[in-house]
Write a structure and sequence with these properties.
The strands form two sheets. The protein has a five-stranded parallel sheet with strand order 2-3-1-4-7, with helices on both faces. The protein is of the alpha/beta class and about 230 residues long. α3 crosses α4. The chain has a single domain, classed as Rossmann fold. Bound molecules: adenosine monophosphate (AMP). Adenosine monophosphate binds next to α3 and α4.
């Protein structure tokens, strides 16, 4: 998008489906929020949706909780059903950002079939673009162990390199910051192993499909955002 393109123009363009790939802690959530801001399309974070279900004590939440607490993936059928229900809502018609989905090749195959079948009537949707935010292992560990979030507004901080102004307190609304249950060290190691085993193969899968762009996620956040926006604009 050139500098002349206004924000209001961006909020009417068709973006199509965007998948943000990357390990836990790579910055998918942060970049998803940038895309939401810029293009006015929704972020669909399967982690957030699952956590909401757990908090509400829904049937899905009860089934998902045990997997999430130990850093394992929730079974594909449960997650796919939840995503299908979400992406068919009207706010996804110009596009949407999938953050944390797909996480297995089976989920990716399922998504392809869903997109090929068409989500909305008479829609000429832009093709899928997959942006992989690549960050090395030690950096991921540092980010995950330091991560704190605001339970009220969802803003994410890091005690090592992006601390709140007052310790443990959200700059925006003053809520007490929390550490996600699965950001405890023993669970983090398991989540990173799960990522390497089940999600990393998706990079080759999408590379072979020709819709894959890799962004260096260790750069300053503004540069990661600029590269992500460039990939999404295509
Ligand atoms: P996240 O916030 O994306 O790191 O996700 C938190 C947890 O939710 C993961 O560790 C998994 O247990 C579960 N989860 C999120 N997305 C998926 C997915 N696409 N497939 C299976 N499990 C998922």
């Amino acid at each position: 998008m050139d500098a002349a393109t206004t924000l209001s123009d961006r909020k009417t363009v068709e973006v199509g489906p965007v998948v943000l790939l990357g390990a836990p802690g790579a910055g998918k959530g942060t970049q998803a929020k940038e895309l939401v801001e810029s293009f006015g399309i929704p972020q669909i974070s399967t982690g957030d949706l699952l956590r909401e279900n757990v908090a509400q004590g829904s049937e899905l939440g009860r089934k998902a909780k045990a997997f999430m607490d130990k850093g394992a993936l929730v079974p594909d059928d449960l997650v796919c059903e939840m995503v299908a229900e979400r992406v068919k809502r009207a706010d996804c018609v110009r596009g949407f950002v999938l953050d944390g989905f797909p996480r297995t090749v089976a989920q990716a195959e399922w998504l392809n079939a869903l997109l090929e079948a068409g989500l909305f009537e008479n829609q000429a949707s832009k093709p899928l673009v997959v942006v992989n935010i690549a960050v090395d292992y030690n950096e991921l560990l540092r980010r995950l162990t330091g991560r704190r979030s605001c339970p009220t507004c969802g803003r994410i901080y890091n005690v090592h390199f992006q601390p709140p102004r007052v310790p443990d307190t959200c700059d925006v609304d003053g809520s007490k910051l929390i550490t996600r249950k699965d950001d405890r060290e023993e669970v983090i190691a398991e989540r990173l192993k799960t990522y390497e085993r089940q999600t990393l193969p998706l990079t080759d899968y999408y590379r072979a499909k020709g819709c894959y762009v890799e962004v260096n996620g260790s750069q300053p956040v503004e540069k990661v955002t600029a590269d992500t926006m460039k990939a999404v604009r295509r």
